[in-house]
């Protein structure tokens, strides 16, 4: 569990993938990027999240793994301020939900989700889609500045998508759209970038291409902390350092990848007998013939 710092604690300077590096405070009490403590969400008599604890620190890249209905979407909505918790604390860069303007604070969280794709105008060039992230708009209507254009081009180039600058949304493949949306999220210089099932809809070849791209992104200097939300262990790359396993609104395990991604923990997460192996640095999960495993929760 994270200990939440005082709301008056000094925050580290923002460092972005496209920004000139700046000095970060050497204070021994730096706020974590994200701290969730005893988070509980209820709707009527239904408890969706049961006292969830989670902490993301600088230099960590996380995977959130769990089956359908485990509470992943509810957790994301709470982090983004779209859903009010029933109790507990959420703090981003040391500022607590309810004590800070979450509309401003959530600009520090970039999110890439398939829900955005239907809202991008079909004829919008990729560079305008990217720039729209700077202003939290969809369907960019203002005139971008020269700095906006240069930054967007630099982001697309750094993500291996320079050729897409003037290509319209309707002519982008699913994998290309994901890269453009990641560039869009990075335009706001977030400290945390959430990738909500980014491989959904990709064929096996496109998925592997996207995962290799994601691995390169994670290893770039000044990349924000990444959070990958997925159902599939084969999408968990070596660059991800930590994992949060969820089942029925509870944390099964959270921490360093080597400790959390084990067959017993995953069997508890999915309530089934599972076998976990690694091949060439990637995970492979196989399921037993009968559902006889009982969760330790």
Strand order of the largest sheet: 6-7-8-3-9-10
Low-confidence runs: 3-29, 292-297
Helix/strand order: EEEHEEHEHHHEHEEEHHEE
| Beta-strand segment tally | 12
Report strand %: 25-35%
Number of helices: 8
Integer-rounded radius of gyration: 19 Å
Average pLDDT metric:
84
Q: Oligomer, anyone?
A: single chain
The biggest sheet amounts to: 6 strands, mixed
Q: Helical amount among residues, as a percent range? A: 10-25%
- Helix-and-strand structural type: alpha/beta
- How widely separated are the two ends? 19 Å
The 3D shape can be described as globular
Essential attributes:
single chain, 297 residues, alpha/beta, four-stranded antiparallel β-sheet, globular, disordered C terminus
């Amino acid at each position: 569990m994270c200990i939440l710092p005082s709301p008056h604690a000094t925050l580290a300077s923002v460092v972005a993938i496209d920004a000139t590096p700046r000095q970060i405070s050497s204070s021994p009490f730096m706020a974590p990027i994200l701290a969730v403590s005893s988070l509980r969400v209820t709707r009527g008599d239904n408890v969706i999240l049961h006292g969830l604890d989670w902490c993301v620190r600088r230099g960590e890249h996380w995977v959130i793994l769990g089956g359908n209905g485990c509470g992943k979407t509810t957790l994301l909505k709470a982090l983004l301020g779209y859903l009010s918790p029933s109790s507990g604390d959420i703090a981003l860069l040391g500022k607590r939900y309810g004590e800070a303007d979450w509309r401003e604070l959530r600009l520090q969280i970039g999110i890439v989700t398939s829900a955005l794709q239907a809202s991008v105008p079909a004829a919008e060039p990729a560079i305008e889609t990217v720039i729209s992230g700077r202003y939290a708009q969809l369907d960019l209507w203002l005139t971008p500045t020269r700095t906006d254009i240069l930054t967007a081009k630099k982001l697309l180039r750094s993500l291996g998508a320079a050729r897409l600058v003037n290509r319209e949304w309707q002519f982008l493949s699913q994998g290309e759209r994901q890269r453009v949306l990641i560039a869009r999220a990075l335009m706001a210089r977030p400290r945390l970038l959430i990738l909500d099932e980014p491989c959904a809809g990709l064929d096996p070849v496109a998925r592997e291409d996207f995962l290799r791209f994601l691995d390169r992104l994670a290893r770039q200097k000044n990349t924000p902390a990444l959070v990958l939300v997925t159902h599939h262990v084969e999408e968990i790359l070596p660059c991800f350092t930590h994992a949060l396993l969820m089942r029925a609104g509870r944390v099964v395990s959270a921490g360093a990848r080597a400790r959390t991604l084990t067959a017993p923990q995953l069997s508890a997460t999915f309530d089934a007998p599972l076998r976990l192996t690694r091949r060439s640095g990637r995970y492979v999960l196989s399921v037993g013939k009968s559902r006889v495993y009982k969760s330790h929760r």
